[in-house]
Design a protein that fits this description.
With 299 residues, the protein is of the alpha+beta class. It contains 7 helices and 15 strands. The protein has 2 domains: 171 residues, 3-Layer(aba) Sandwich (Rossmann fold), CATH 3.40.50.10790; 108 residues, Elongation Factor Tu (Ef-tu), domain 3, CATH 2.40.30. α2 runs parallel beside α5.
Length: 299
């Protein structure tokens, strides 16, 4: 009887493992949704596993903007469960000899795409612990060998769907590559003698708020409290684009409409805004590796 019970438990465990739901697959690209490119990728994923849950991070990355793709991955990926598979296709070098890879993050997510800098912010903020080159002789949509301009459909989403569905193990993707992945340089967040320096990685596009990479922990080194006023300088390269003084407040409505404020955004990083207006548009500020910010207490 005991052996029968053990056998039943083993069989039940195997059945549960076989029936375990697939992990989420999350897509990002600069394709937009005006044509059939995104639908084609979802069709490939559906062909791998009709039960695979597929979500969109965004398909509105500006064309060729690897920097934006990198930040959006780092913005979204930490909030997804362990095992989630992302594929990010902002690939101006498609069809060239840049590596096609799968990266594993320190918190157990997988990123599929070209190794062209898209992993920069995840590497710096979360950590990349392993990197493998996709063996395209085994992980490529059949019949696509002569297609060189749509690896998102033919290589990346196929590999990502196989990973997410459990049909492919990370170790079987292809040969391991040395770390770190390809990175883009930018101003790291620092504090020296009461002056914070950092990068403007992205704009809060819909509202025109200017986000920085200066986190709350670093900001606390200035002994800041609500209502304190700070002098802020935003530069593009060496050129000062904006300089002004604004209060540190918890939210937009703490100042009159149209007035500037310094606040912690949803990632708990310092940001600049105008209440109900666009700070970026008024001051002609953009984002990217060449944009930087300095923040210090006002005299």
């Amino acid at each position: 009887m005991r052996m029968g019970w053990t056998a039943w438990l083993l069989a039940a465990g195997l059945a549960w493992a076989e029936a375990a739901p697939p992990r989420a697959l999350v897509l990002q690209s600069d394709f937009g949704t005006a044509d059939g490119a995104v639908a084609a990728m979802k069709g490939v994923a559906f062909s791998v596993d009709p039960a695979l849950p597929v979500f969109d991070l965004t398909h509105e990355i500006p064309p060729y903007r690897i920097w934006d793709a990198s930040f959006r991955l780092a913005q979204a990926a930490p909030f997804w469960p362990e095992g989630t598979v992302f594929t990010s296709i902002v690939d101006p070098g498609v069809g060239t000899d840049r590596a096609s890879v799968v990266a594993r993050t320190r918190d157990g997510k997988f990123i599929v795409g070209p190794d062209n800098g898209q992993l920069t912010h995840l590497h710096d903020r979360v950590g990349i612990t392993a990197l493998r080159r996709i063996d395209e002789s085994r992980h490529r949509r059949p019949g696509s060998e002569v297609s060189h301009t749509f690896h998102g459909r033919d290589v990346y989403v196929l590999t990502a769907a196989r990973l997410a569905s459990g049909r492919l193990k990370f170790e079987d993707v292809g040969p391991e590559l040395p770390l770190p992945p390809v990175r883009m340089d930018y101003q790291a967040a620092t504090e020296v003698d009461g002056v914070l320096r950092g990068n403007v990685p992205v704009l809060d596009l819909r509202y025109g708020n200017v986000w920085t990479n200066v986190g709350a922990d670093l900001f606390r080194k200035l002994g800041a409290k609500e209502g304190d006023r700070f002098r802020v300088v935003v530069r593009q390269g060496k050129r000062a684009v904006y300089e002004g003084v604004m209060p540190f407040v918890p939210t937009f409505g703490a100042v009159p409409r149209g007035q500037p404020l310094l606040y912690l955004n949803s990632l708990l990083e310092l940001s600049l805004a105008l209440n109900q207006e666009s700070f970026a548009s008024r001051h002609r500020i953009e984002a990217g590796p060449e944009w930087s910010v300095e923040i210090r207490k006002a005299e």
